[in-house]
């Protein structure tokens, strides 16, 4: 099925019911007084993150989502019934943006997370609320308020630990096939990958991580050239980027260093924070380079590219060096996770002790000899 990762919808909260102006007309109570009830509240629209859904395809065909109105109040102190809320189930990783203001309304990152999209209107007041000692027969009532109405843009960002980055035909699909359970289309022509692919990499029975492969990027991708620009947003959630470079391109006039630098420039144009993410250089297709030329070719590339980070030499097709890379990725992710947990524990401990905001210059904390 084609990957659907963007949709536009309209959400409309229900209107509140009107209040009622009524007077008691019971036997033996000729002046029973006002007894008009309030109107019920309108239904609200909620977004719910559901890990069992992986596309936004349903919202491509169902554009308008409207909650029911609340019932109006009636006499004899009868209050109107409130309308039920509407819950829209969306994939985990969905970003909800207000189309008019561009404001991010919600970011669904965990299963079961609920966010209100359009609030239902409050019900109107009946005349029972306007009774006073000087106004014993009020005829005032208020109408219910209108529910909120919004046009929203839904964007699905894949939740993956590792993202693959590279030019078309760099070998990203071959790599994800070699190390995970994903089976994307592989062919010897550019732009074989037309939509993102997710794969679960099993390091052992209880150890795994998720890797995402997006369509290849070309120069000008940030301005809309090629296909990968449509899916660059998926790399924003990943914890580690693997920059895969083809060291043995088919065409002699293709310069791997120039292509690698162009790709980094596209990342900067699209989102500077992507460049600051942990990024490893993966030199692929070394099986196409003669054994005696490998060391020199790798050294020359790193020098011309000006790379100072981690470098891995692999052949995705022959599974050469892939297991070592997988092990290194898992260790990196585990260290990062434990580091975040320790930082959170330290922060919570400091808050519990009340020392997180101590100013050493505060006269209350001067050291007395």
From TrEMBL:
Entry binding sites for GTP: 166-173, 191-195, 213-216, 284-287, 315-317
Chain positions covered by the region annotation Disordered: 129-148
Enzyme Commission number, as recorded: 3.6.5.-
Keyword terms: Cytoplasm, GTP-binding, Hydrolase, Magnesium, Metal-binding, Nucleotide-binding
InterPro entries on file: G_OBG, GTP-bd, GTP-bd_Obg/CgtA, GTP1-OBG_CS, GTP1_OBG_dom, GTP1_OBG_dom_sf, OBG_GTPase, P-loop_NTPase
Localization, UniProt: Cytoplasm
Principal EC category: hydrolase
Source superkingdom: Bacteria
Swiss-Prot/TrEMBL cofactor(s): Mg(2+)
Residue intervals of the Obg domain: 1-159
Pfam families xrefs: GTP1_OBG (PF01018), MMR_HSR1 (PF01926)
Domain (OBG-type G): residue spans on this chain: 160-334
Job description of the protein: An essential GTPase which binds GTP, GDP and possibly (p)ppGpp with moderate affinity, with high nucleotide exchange rates and a fairly low GTP hydrolysis rate. Plays a role in control of the cell cycle, stress response, ribosome biogenesis and in those bacteria that undergo differentiation, in morphogenesis control.
Family in the record: Belongs to the TRAFAC class OBG-HflX-like GTPase superfamily. OBG GTPase family.
NCBIfam families according to UniProt: Obg_CgtA, PRK12296.1, PRK12297.1, PRK12299.1
Subunit structure: Monomer.
Name this protein carries in UniProt: GTPase Obg
């Amino acid at each position: 099925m084609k990957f659907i990762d963007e949709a536009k919808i309209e959400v409309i909260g229900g209107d509140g019911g009107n209040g009622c102006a009524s007077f008691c007309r019971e036997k033996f109570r000729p002046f029973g007084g006002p007894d008009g009830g309030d109107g019920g509240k309108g239904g609200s629209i909620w977004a719910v993150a559901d890990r069992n859904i992986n596309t936004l395809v349903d919202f491509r065909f169902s554009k308008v989502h409207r909650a029911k109105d609340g019932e109006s109040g009636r006499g004899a102190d009868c209050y109107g019934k409130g309308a039920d809320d509407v819950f829209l189930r969306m994939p985990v990783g969905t970003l909800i943006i207000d189309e008019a203001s561009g404001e991010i309304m919600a970011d669904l990152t965990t299963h079961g997370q609920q966010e209100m999209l359009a609030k239902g209107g409050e019900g109107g007041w009946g005349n029972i609320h306007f009774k006073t000692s000087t106004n014993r027969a009020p005829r005032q009532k208020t109408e219910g308020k209108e529910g909120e109405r919004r046009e929203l843009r839904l964007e699905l960002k894949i939740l993956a630990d590792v993202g693959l980055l590279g030019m078309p035909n760099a070998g990203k699909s071959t790599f994800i096939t070699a190390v995970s359970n994903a089976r994307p289309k592989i062919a010897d022509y550019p732009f074989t990958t037309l939509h993102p692919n997710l794969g679960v990499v099993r390091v052992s029975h209880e150890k795994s991580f998720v890797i995402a492969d997006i369509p290849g990027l070309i120069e000008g991708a940030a301005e809309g050239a090629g296909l990968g620009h449509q899916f660059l947003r998926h790399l924003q959630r990943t914890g580690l980027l693997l920059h895969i470079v083809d060291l043995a391109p088919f065409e002699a006039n293709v310069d791997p260093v120039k292509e690698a630098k162009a790709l980094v420039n596209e990342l900067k144009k699209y989102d500077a924070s992507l460049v600051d993410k942990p990024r490893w250089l993966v030199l692929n297709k070394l099986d196409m380079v003669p054994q005696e030329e490998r060391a020199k070719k790798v050294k020359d590339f790193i020098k011309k590219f000006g790379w100072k980070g981690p470098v891995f030499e692999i052949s995705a097709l022959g599974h050469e060096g892939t297991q070592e890379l997988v092990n290194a990725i898992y260790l990196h992710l585990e260290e990062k996770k434990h580091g975040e947990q320790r930082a959170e524990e330290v922060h919570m401990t400091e808050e519990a002790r009340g020392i997180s905001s101590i100013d050493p210059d505060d006269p209350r904390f001067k050291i007395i000899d």
